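Researcher: Let's run the pair from yesterday's discussion. Sequence first, then tokens, for each.
Model: Starting with the first of the pair.
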Amino acid sequence: MEKEQLEAMRHSCEHALTMAMMRLWPGKIKAAMGPATDDGFYFDFDSEVKISEADFDKIEKEMAKIIKDNLPMIKDEMTVAEAREFFSRNTYEGNEYKHEWLDEIEGRGEKVSVYWMGEKGGDMPNTFVDICSGPHVESTGKIGAFKLLKVAGAYWHGDEKNKMLQRVYGTAFATQEDLDKYLTMMEEAKNRDHRKLGVELDLFTFSDLVGPGLALWTPKGTLLRNTLDEYVWQLRKERGYTKVTIPHITKKALYEKSGHWDKFATELFHITTREGHEFAMKPMNCPHHTQIYDHVRRSYRELPQRYAETTMVYRDEQTGELSGLSRVRCITQDDAHVFLRESQVKEEIFKIWDIIEIFYKATGFGKMRVRLSFHDPDHFEKYLGEKEVWERTENQLRELAQERGVEVFEAKGEAAMYGPKVDFIAVDSIGREWQVATVQLDRNLPERFDLNCINEKGEQERIVMLHAAIMGSIERFLSILIEHHAGAFPVWMAPVQIQLVPVSAKHVEGAKNLLTELVELGIRVDIDEADETVGNKVRKAVGQKIPYIVVVGDKELAGEDWMIRVRGQENQEKMKKEEFVEKVLDETRERK
């Protein structure tokens, strides 16, 4: 089914949910708001009744009746005054949420779009109407197979200063078979949830004292982050990149000049100095990097200038939208910017493309989909620059993708505010798609910052800028990676590659000597010195998903062959210590 049709079905199912809730608990439910999402829908309710998953059976039965009745979905328009009067009576009396939406619509000078479910002008329980711009299916009979999934608390508008509402999540698909596949995937996703595995594997934690959306990384988690980041840097260094370093705050003026202040002022952490100067915590790095490029006069012979930096940026995300590592307030970016001439664009984009393909193969992802993320011509006010420049730049990306020989799809409205992008979509081990790496071709920031080089004729020549992120947000990438591998990382990136398990206290000292020897060779090793049975120690190491476990007893310390417990294998492998060490080193070098 086409994405647009699926969205319309889910949006309509969300209305069926709301109608069912208001039928079941008349006068006790205020319908707030809810959208269709990428994989379903949700709706927020201000309810006198505590809704739980135990109520899902009766809610779903009521929804099924609404769907069976094949009620028409009818679009209508009202003036703001008509809507205020309408949403002040009957089942909507006292619903402040609808009036807040009407205030916003009035502020935009628009009419109010509503959808009727059932007879236009009718009343509950046979008819339901809500403020909505659509899209919807023609009638409820077109909704298909659906399922309610969970209930959660959600602040109105995601702001913890507002009232906590009850959010009911659900999903819908064209067929029961598609729904069953999705539910199976969701069950597997629960087992792979990075928030659960992150705690079990001791990779990261959050603290109420530090604040929501601010991850704290343990030694193991930091090892994992650094191993991945060092590999990205190795790939970049081989292609001529150099490292730069910038501060974490900036004057307001920098983001006013770049255009970010006008577009993203509400997402910035604002700082006012004792002298009254206004600063911001940086939400991105590109404006700072322009100032490194522009601090000296540049000859064309010096281009491209390739700057790389792994650094943290900060965005004032709403508390209700935060989710594990997937959405945080402190974001670590493996960021890079290339300042180059027009004639160098293809070569430099292909270098970045090479890095992305090599890195994602090593991290265990197969062939990725490629999306060309372009501007939305109906809302050009969201973007910087001129339409002609955008169209020329987007055509250039189309041509480069064609020359690269890859199949692409285009997405309007997914561009960055300053330029179109080549986005890479990874598919994880349970079939979910994630946008990961990105390359952005930008002719607008060089214009705004007046970035030039001196060309062969001694004239100033306007340059071009590339923005490139391989992992992007390292936090978000690790949430994807953890779930993709279910915490069982390939040997080369595993925080602990070998777990040594001494048989008894008398073997601990010898095991420590082995640990020192292996660490000096560059292998990541841990030792369990607990006064427990070997069986308990092995079970703990298995639970930590460590690739190799070696029980260290008299024979191992005497130089005899080692028995290696290999993750995911029932039978142990027997080999000489030197052979095993070379195997681990080879897997690390070859990134296996």
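Model: Moving on to the second of the pair.
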Amino acid sequence: MKSEYRAMLAVGLSAVFFLLWYTVINPAKKDANPPAAPAAQAVEATKSIEAAAPAVTESSAGKEASAALADPQARIPFVTSMLKNSLVEADVTNDGGVVTSWRVLDYRQTTDPKSPPIDLALSEQGIPAPLSLSLDSASLGIPERPRFEVVESSDSKVVLRWRSQKIELTKTISLKPDSYSADVSIDVQNRSSEPITIRPTLDWSGVNLPQKKKGGPFSFLTGQQVDIRQPVFFVDGKAHRPKDVQKLTKPQSSTGAVYWAGIESRYFLSAIIPRVQGDGLAAEYGNAGQPADAQAAQGLWAGVSLPPTAVPPGGGYKSGFSVYAGPKEMNLLKAMGVRLEEAIDYGWFTVIAIPILYLLQFFYGVVRNYGIAIILLTIFVKLLLHPVNVRSLKSMKAMQQLQPRLKELQKKYKDDKQRLNAETMQLFRAHKVNPMGGCLPMLLQLPIYIALYKVLWSSIELYHAPFFWFYQDLSAPDPYLITPILLGIFMVAQQLLTPSASADPAQKKMMMFMPIMFTGFMLFLPVGLVIYILVNTGMSVTQQWMYNKGIGFMDLIRGRLGAKPA
């Protein structure tokens, strides 16, 4: 394969990869909620949500009053109980028995250590609030937000009870120590003289705040810096992420072997986990309805429904759920034992990505800095693939040496394609050159580099992780554009060092445009990713220079930087 064709193939593969990434694999979305929104922005978002809610007319106010009177416990005062451990602070209200705030204490909204913690309990009108429980039976007369009596409240547990003439419902939320998980137990007693049928459902919700559109030639990339929330559920051995949830007109349900369901973002997961398995389980999800204003906040919800159960008169029913609401940290998710780690999406190359993640964590354990850990990981992978790269370089050089002979054959047999092909293959065999030898190594390395890219893109370890100096967040773009510009410079050097048999000025100009294009891509990527690509490119330049000079690693160690004598 001609060197110019190899270069064009590399350009094409790179361009296709980035186009697929930003348009298919991880496309930008309009409605979004940034992971590090300041407290002031959260207040403004609340105001916008309230402004988007329908105005309360006299008739609707009358209906609300009637609903309140229908609740036999409506006169119980509002009470908020706080659950807390070393990792979580959660506010539970007796108005509906739901969570109004779930603060993960180790993760802040900004890099400022004094900024508020990330709150995973976001909701709005029209969707079930986090840990909202329903029994799916209109005949029971349970209000949409029943006023619970607080039976017991402590740092680790709150017990809520609601009674009517038909049933007694006890809901217990227990926060586990030093964990992002909790147990939600339910106890239903049938106080009527007739059997009742219940189907307990526990939900979690999320809100995507509007994102202002930005112009410019690379504006389609800016959405990648936004933390989109979306439903996700694990059913029948596979994680599912519904598309276009905002456009749904009614709630959706997926039955089967349901392990968990919830709301995810790039770095965090809030999942409902049924304690029982068997027929009748369902993962459910939906939205609050398409807002009239396209720039309004969009509410989403997801949860798990248990199988329908008949409760005889005077009988009882006990069951429950577990909840995980915290970071997408591999070890924590695996510890839950229900394949929550499948919420971390590494795509087709998961089998490669997981060892890379463990390597990243290993290097961090040594140097205690994720920026340096990324550099060490990139060097390790590059050295691991060094033999493959050397074979590629040898093949490219051999092909370059054959270019004059190939041009002679092309000129000699320009009117006989069959003879030209035969003579070309004979030339390759005589010189033991594989025309695909320069391209195949590139294709073999591609899965490893894509897996490494995916790990660094979705790794919670990089969230607000400092590097040095003004680089205080490896998950954010480079604020001063230093690393993208350095990458462009290294790519220019790589183009100049890579041998090419082509003298076509137009092709050379096209190849020199590649550094500009890649620099543009890097402007919007997290700096942790740019560091990886920068170090990888820098090592490729060094490797190419050493090969051109005939310098080996031992020569480099000994300080011999000159070319070997012929």
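Researcher: Give me one sentence on the second I can quote.
Model: Confidence is low (pLDDT under 50) at residues 1-11, 20-25, 27-69, 214-226.
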